[in-house]
Amino acid sequence: MANITKVYKQPFDTARFIGKRYTNADRINGDFGAKWCEWFEKGWFDVIKKPNDFEDGDAQIGLMTDKNGEFEYWIGVFTPENSEVPEGFAHIDFPKGELGVCWVYGSEAEIFCQEGPCAEKMQKEGFDIKGEWCFERYTSRFCTPDEKGNVIIDICFFLN
Q1: What is the DSSP code string of 81-146?
Q2: Which domains does the chain have, with CATH numbers?
Q3: Which of 29, 54, 76, 100 has a C-alpha 20 to 30 A away from that of 8?
Q4: All residues at 6 or more sequence positions from 24 whose CB lies less than 8 Å from its CB, including other chains
């Protein structure tokens, strides 16, 4: 069973997200796992990754929003503001602000789709979530299983 093990606020510097946009029509077997495999197979993270100074800035990102009733899922990375966007990629600029970060711990099969419980936990702790965007952040906590084989995924929300 997935558990929320930590909730905290984190500064967020002005950044440019560079990646590719997907919709529900791009899901394979109900998720975007095949798209993530494509990213690794084609080396796309290496094409767009830029050095940056923000905490956990080297993480891969699954950025989500619901615009006009259409779910969008973007795969990519946050880069320094005004970073050049390579051909074939799109970008979204985000202002400086603050994130609400939720660590979800469990087996890889259990930790996904926990945005609702994370938002509820943050709101109970007084976090004022903007609501337009949230994202999965894949850091070394996700890439390095513990002795039980469990990992941590960061679920992040932009705060007011």
Answers
A1: TT----TT-EEEEE-SEEEEEEEEEE-TTTSSS-HHHHHHHHHHTT--EEEEEEEEEE-HHHHS--
A2: 3-159 (3.20.80.10)
A3: 76
A4: 70, 71
Q: Which residues contact 33 (CB under 8 A, 6 or more apart)?
A: none
Residue 14 has phi, psi (to 5 degrees) of -50, 130
| 86 and 48 Cβ atoms separated by less than 8 Å | yes
Q: What is the pLDDT of residues 3-60, one digit of tens each?
A: 999 999 999 999 999 999 999 999 999 999 999 999 999 999 999 977 667 778 789 9
**Could you tell me which residues are beta bridge partners of residue 151?**
106
Structure tokens at 76: 């990519």
How many whole angstroms separate alpha carbon 67 and alpha carbon 54?
Answer: 27
